[in-house]
Amino acid sequence: MILTEISKYLQEHEDEIKSGKSTLSLVTEKLIEILKKQPKNNVEKIIHTELSLFENSSKEFLLIAKSESGRVLMNALYEFSESFERHILRKWLQDKLATDFNNDKSN
Question: Is the pLDDT of residue 103 over 80?
């Protein structure tokens, strides 16, 4: 359920991923967005139950799991974001040839 929502979010931001933004930073942005507002659905309620957001005056933040299940959730989100990024890279590489990466500019 949570991974489905995160997957939709990452798919909506696929162009940003292709241009170099990491999936982990996108997932983090989404979690912060969810944790800064009142939960509206079950996914947001679960995230509020399992995770805490701390932010200082310099806008540095820390996401912390509230329990073992929160730690499992954080780990699953991390692994999923890495997997999604590899998936996007594989899709991008499908139609590329080795010569596409030739650094020789004389050709």
Answer: no
| DSSP 8-class letter at 41 | S
* pTM attached to this predicted model: 0.82
Using CA atoms, how far residue 87 sits from 14, 23, 80, in Å, is: 11, 11, 10
Burial-class residue 51 by CB neighbours within 10 Å (0-12, 13-18, 19+): buried
- Is the residue at 103 inside a domain? no
Number of CB atoms found within 10 A of residue 31's CB: 19
> What is the per-residue pLDDT across 7-52, written as a single tens digit (0 to 9) for each?
999 999 999 998 999 999 999 999 999 999 999 999 999 999 999 9
Domain with 87, as residue range(s), is: 2-93
SS3 at position 53: strand
DSSP category for residue 15? H
Task: Give the Cα separation of 89 and 85 in Å (integer).
Answer: 6
